[in-house]
Amino acid sequence: MNGRVHVCALTDLEPGQAIALSLGKDRYGLPLQCVVALDESGHVRAYLNVCKHLPIPLDGGTGEFFDDERTHLFCGTHGARYRLSDGRCVEGPCQGAHLDPVSVEVIADEVFVRWLPDDD
User: Fold this and answer.
1) pTM over the 0.90 mark
2) Does 2 score more than 60 pLDDT?
């Protein structure tokens, strides 16, 4: 999969909720997803669903991406908390690291991500 991928209508995104979108397979043939959510200022953000502590999905397959306060993306395996605005880990074993961003476009109130996989 590459190029522009439709996620949802902008009105389908709500604060404290995330949409997981399949991006195909990574270079090792493993499933790859991004997480799309609104940040605290209402901007749409997307990040690869891969924790920076260990390369595992943030949600561990549960579909739960937020901490209890629903203000930070959360790794359910090691408790890392990431700001929505920039993907920076603010608490946990990978503090200071950043989630890998995925380019987002909003066109005519529809949300798209732009994904060009590595050829490695």
Assistant:
1) yes
2) no
